[in-house]
Amino acid sequence: MEFSQLKSWVESANGSLFPIQNLPLGICSYNNKKIVCSRLGDFIIDLSLLYENNFLSIPGLELRHLQNDYLNDFISLGADNISNLRKQLIRLFSVENSTQSGMLQSYMISIDDCILHLPISVGDYTDFYSSKEHATNVGIMFRDPANALLPNWLHLPVGYHGRASSIVTSGTDIKRPAGQIVLKDGEVPVYSKCKQLDFELEMGFVIGKENKLGEPIPIQETLNHVFGLILFNDWSARDIQKWEYVPLGPFLGKNFASTVSPWIISLDALAEFKTEGPVQSPTPLEYLSPEPLRNFDIQLEVYINDTLVSKSNTKYLYWSISQQLAHHTVNGCNMRIGDLCASGTISGPEASSFGSMLELAWKGTKPIPMNDGSTRVFLQDGDVVKMIAFTENKNYRIGFGECIGKIVS
Amino acid sequence: MEFSQLKSWVESANGSLFPIQNLPLGICSYNNKKIVCSRLGDFIIDLSLLYENNFLSIPGLELRHLQNDYLNDFISLGADNISNLRKQLIRLFSVENSTQSGMLQSYMISIDDCILHLPISVGDYTDFYSSKEHATNVGIMFRDPANALLPNWLHLPVGYHGRASSIVTSGTDIKRPAGQIVLKDGEVPVYSKCKQLDFELEMGFVIGKENKLGEPIPIQETLNHVFGLILFNDWSARDIQKWEYVPLGPFLGKNFASTVSPWIISLDALAEFKTEGPVQSPTPLEYLSPEPLRNFDIQLEVYINDTLVSKSNTKYLYWSISQQLAHHTVNGCNMRIGDLCASGTISGPEASSFGSMLELAWKGTKPIPMNDGSTRVFLQDGDVVKMIAFTENKNYRIGFGECIGKIVS
């Protein structure tokens, strides 16, 4: 049977966002142990139990890789080995292996009986700024509408270092940060709770293979260094950010929290969904030469308290993952397994596809209507922000799981 | 005997930069094992052997803390316990304990027979910008001499996130980075080796106690969260930085390498050397209220190939360690054990005390004379940059060890 038409004997998987073609990786706990797991439909698959009972075998694999607080050690086994393990999972759980379903069910746990955790220990986290529409919108609002993009933007994927310690998993409450803000232009700053709390809709990628310090990753090899993709909300305190960010960039306006989805989606699972990106003009320097299908066609949605406020897509990104990674390492900067890079806010060409409240409410001038009749220009205490991401073809869908956070005071 | 007049039976310690009052902590290897160590004069003290032979005892201490690639696990034992262990070391190696010197010598290794390593596994690295003279110099050179400091600078310690993965220990060669630079203003960028490679003279501090996400560290408690100080060279590619840094701050111009000295000097050892800082006007907001003696009087020197090019001092810093840490966490950002914060370039009021070549050669207009008759405006391949730091009173000196890097192409 053709791979794209393959079904699982786990019936809730078929047609769901977690079909047998997805098989994301994450970390969950149940019965007081943390393990590496995957998901099929409404079930978690316990890879450590499968390994202990000899259903999985790849070179170098030991129980410590699968009974672990994070995926990093497992990822260190290498892309080829993990692709191989993925094929073993597909074989085990496909309809063609229904005869073993009784036995294999003992390695499945209902999703409701597990807690999902931050899947990786992030060494360094980098945030890019790769949506032309987002950079243009911000430039229009805060700088010069006639010269919204700064001179470097079309030549390189602008990025900066973020905070790794405050990356949390979906479901973690987000405490409204305090700090210095300026209430009116030209006045002195005051200490205050943030009054302009925002989300940023982003897609991240996780490093699966290191490069040594001093050795750039050529653009043709970049995807061999990427383990998979993860949905990302880069919470932003706009008023703190606005006052602090010159000349060294965002700091406390960003580093109080970022939320990731619990699952990492492998590039194997996304290979069917590559697509062209926007035309790049001027032509990038050779070390940034893009492949023809450099982007992924992944649909993105943001909800505030169940009101859909944004529909975007990773295909809008001007700079691709490959270009980001080639640029990040062109100076010899070393990436380690588990390092995380995020795209920056993903805004599309339509106002409905803007990836932040700053843009959706256009600096407070266009309040966003909620289903309950209220409006928002920034987030209020108690608001729940939910992001989802999925991609689909005529045979199946691939979901990322939810990226959720509730604002608390 | 008064502590400040105490001598060690290790004769090379007395009068050296590593007297019994210093006892820094680091990681070294010899005989194919990595261990936690201290230094006295010309000798490394192997703390793991001392522990194994029952000379050291603090609650919770196990061999794994002392046979370790990094100090992080050891630091997690807590400041009180580590202060206690420090007192045990002082007792063992003081002249008053000379009777045990024969026995204890078997736990000492000549400094020449060890390799010193990066002492901590850095989770997150933050770089501040806390020298008013440095920020002013940069502002004069690149922005507006009449308004050299940006509006936020006197209100908060400006900082940004740097790269943890590329922090290396003293002695590691520094490969000249390549990247995008603009050869003449207004022209298109080219891919090139960096032509404006610089050092930045900085002092770092290492986090010794975590705070939870969402829980700021009040300024009065900040020093309880600091394990010690470390000398820091934040290598900078000025041409890469100049093109890339708007609007999100330095990235590839900095993240190709930073070098730290091998030793962490405890706040206990530096307690005698606290001093006032520059007058702060306007008065900082309450969460940044400084203690009266907020700075350390630590002398700093930079050599290029044995030519002394800068003499500075940490006392010049406008924003103190306490203020940096209180600000960093005011929004709830969490610090983890081993996280590293650096001061930013430490420039003093005199031209001879500027902490970078950018300032010393004033943007290339005042070439720096070398002892061999050549000059420098930026670093050349083969140049060796050496930084040292020490503090002294009438009885003893405390040294940080050297922070060295050679530029290779």
Radius of gyration of chain A: 21 Å
Class of the largest domain in chain A, according to the CATH hierarchy? Alpha Beta
Give the uncertain stretches of chain A in residue-range form.
Answer: none
Shape type of chain A = globular
Largest binding interface between chains: A-B, 59 and 59 residues
How many helical stretches of chain A? 10
Mean pLDDT of chain A: 97
Class by SSE composition of chain A: alpha+beta
CATH topology assignment of the largest domain in chain A: Fumarylacetoacetate hydrolase, domain 2
- Strand-residue fraction of chain A? 25-35%
Number of strands of chain A: 27
Q: Could you state the CATH homologous superfamily of the largest domain in chain A?
A: Fumarylacetoacetase-like, C-terminal domain
Major β-sheet profile of chain A: 8 strands, mixed
Give the structure's gist in a few sentences.
The structure is a homodimer of 409-residue chains. Chain A has helices at residues 47-52, 63-66, 72-75, 79-93, 101-104, 132-142, 238-244, 267-270, 321-329, 357-360, and strands at 26-30, 33-40, 43-46, 108-110, 115-117, 125-128, 159-161, 167-169, 174-175, 178-181, 190-193, 197-198, 201-207, 226-233, 236-237, 258-260, 265-266, 274-275, 295-296, 299-304, 307-313, 340-342, 368-369, 375-376, 384-392, 397-399, 403-408. The first copy, chain A, has 409 residues and is an alpha+beta fold.
